[in-house]
Amino acid sequence: MTPRVAACQFEPVVDSLDANYDRIETLTEQVNADLAVFPELCVTGYDLSVARKRATPVPGELTSPLIDIASRTDTELVVGLPERDGDALYNVFVLVDGSGVQATYRKRYPWGDEPSVFDTGTGPVVADTSVGRIGFLLCYDLNFPELALEYAERDCDVLAVGAAWRTSFRGDWRLLLRSRALDGPCYTIGANHVGDQRGREHAGESLVAGPKGEVLVETGTASDAAVTTVDSSELDAAMERNPVRETRQELSSE
């Protein structure tokens, strides 16, 4: 059976974890997907002082409710939250299933005021899931094609992208998700915030792009989800049509 993926968007309530967990669970139940991707820092809301205050180790207090949701819905979840590791603080994407945290990705390119709060991640993270091999990017990371190419070198089928992308950059969001899909080639699942969070207007428009760079399904600006399938035969056809991955491997071996 062809696996289903979902790019889920909602307006987090800043510093109201229970409300945000409830929204994550409701959307997960609605999409009935094998893997659901949620936005950057959506557990706490996008507020750097709140992220600093609420950050815990991973696995820990912030991930336990996500594991419970994954177990109840039989869905793999990719969710953004803050992680504390000793004296360091990271903006992270976690992959969880009903048995626990399976991967943690730390954002590599902090944006705006984020460097005053968050430390920088040091490398790509790859995980094997029910929908294929996936890699992770957070928001501004999407602007750097070299990060996506690291995942192509690791034969990723899917890039999970979480963001708090503002309306002033909405055109970039759509273009970059399509570009990174074509770079792979791979599927990109982009999950963004919607609404206002303490003066930040978020664009929504979450989408899934296919390995030919086309938008397969997308949302608007309300709480919603974009749901589609990941088809390995479509990925194979895209790599035959656009053999950049094979060409890169050949050139690197010379």
Automatic annotation (TrEMBL):
- Which intervals carry biased composition (Basic and acidic residues)? 238-254
| UniProt-listed InterPro entries | C-N_Hydrolase, C-N_Hydrolase_sf
Keyword flag S-adenosyl-L-methionine: no
Q: Identify the residues that the record assigns to the CN hydrolase domain, covering every copy.
A: 3-232
Xref: Pfam families = CN_hydrolase
For this UniProt entry, the molecular function terms from Gene Ontology, in alphabetical order, are: hydrolase activity
Q: What is this protein called?
A: Carbon-nitrogen hydrolase family protein
* Taxonomy of the source species: Archaea, Methanobacteriati, Methanobacteriota, Stenosarchaea group, Halobacteria
**Organism from which the protein derives:** Halobaculum magnesiiphilum
Keywords, A to Z, come to: Hydrolase, Plasmid
Q: Give me the ranges of the annotated region Disordered.
A: 231-254
Q: Where are the transmembrane segments?
A: none
PANTHER family in the record, alphabetically? Answer: DEAMINATED GLUTATHIONE AMIDASE (PTHR23088:SF27), NITRILASE-RELATED (PTHR23088)
Keyword 4Fe-4S assigned to the entry: answer is no
Superkingdom of the source species? Archaea
Under the heading PROSITE patterns, the entry gives: CN_HYDROLASE (PS50263)
Query: SUPFAM superfamilies from the entry?
Result: Carbon-nitrogen hydrolase (SSF56317)
